[in-house]
Amino acid sequence: MLAEVGTKFSGPLPGFHFPLLAGLVALAVSWILTPLVRKFAIQKGAVDDPKRDDRRIHKEPLPRWGGLAIYAGIVIAVLAVLPFAFPKTNPFPVYLIGMILVGGVLVIAGALDDLFQYSAKIQLVVLLSAGVVSQLFAGPSGQIQIKNIGIPLTIPPQHIALGGFAMIATALYIFIITKTMDTIDGVDGLAAGISTIAAATLAIIGVYGGQPRVAIIAAAITGAALGFLKHNYNPAKIIMGTGGAYILGFSLACLSIIGALKTAAAVSLLIPVFVFGVPLFDAVQVIIRRKLSGVPLTQADKRHVHHQLLGRGLTQRQTVWVLYVATAALCGVIFFVIQNYARR
Q1: What is the domain count for the chain?
Q2: 310 occurs within a structural domain
Q3: pLDDT confidence of 122, banded at 50, 70, 90?
Q4: Is position 53 within any domain?
Q5: How confident is the model at residue 2 (pLDDT cuts 50, 70, 90)?
Q6: Mean pLDDT, the chain, integer
Q7: Which of 233, 344, 330 shows the shortest CA–CA distance to 281?
Q8: Is residue 135 part of a domain?
Q9: Based on C-alpha coordinates, what's the Rg of the chain?
Q10: What is the pTM of this model?
């Protein structure tokens, strides 16, 4: 376990004070900045046209680039809170600097994709490169790299060392989580809501796992996603765009590596399966259905879970709440499992 020590408060909710503060700061920043980003996106022509294909369910054009506000919320909250949480040690470890820098590049790349619609191959290269580069920022406080894979539910915990495959496995993992967060973003508030629940779960795991810094960063992601959700919930005034999905997916993937996957070795392999269960399930079933239909895997269509729920007569709000509940249930299950094995 990678344990960290920061300033502690006594009183109710021990360990949650700084994460809650980070979450509130991020929420306020993204909430306030999103309308400004909306105006900026409209001025620059970063608008999603619902007539471009039949997958889009909006009736009116919507500005993109919500990811700019989300990213600002995360960064400002982390920069504001960590120095107070860790006054006697370096509040900004090398891996966090890497997350912020690479995340910023992804937000810009996503914003450009919203304008120019890059091919799937270019997106693949961008995300895999981000996964590789983020691993180069290593220091005493940790590294964003999956060095071992825990064998689920073994007592005592057993694991398999990845050795020379660690960099490849980590880059693939980051790509998968980031891309699935992008593909799930097809209904007002869906990706932002799922990210909020997933990040909150990682924050709670961080607190109980003795990783306060991870908890603070995860709480910042929670607040930033939730603040944006205020403007993105149906009927949406803005969508997060590719940059928003990238920064949320990338940040959550990196944080799960540096935090949750090192918290409970016996269940580490199960954590991403449950925390990111809904977008992962959606991606797997879409790939299978496209393969069986003989269409290219990268071909956009209406085979996603949210499209299926809409096709069964659910409204956008009903659809997102079904998937919110599913995400929360999966996150609740893995937290229960972690707590159960922590007592053994």
Answers
A1: 1
A2: yes
A3: very high
A4: no
A5: very low
A6: 89
A7: 330
A8: yes
A9: 19
A10: 0.92
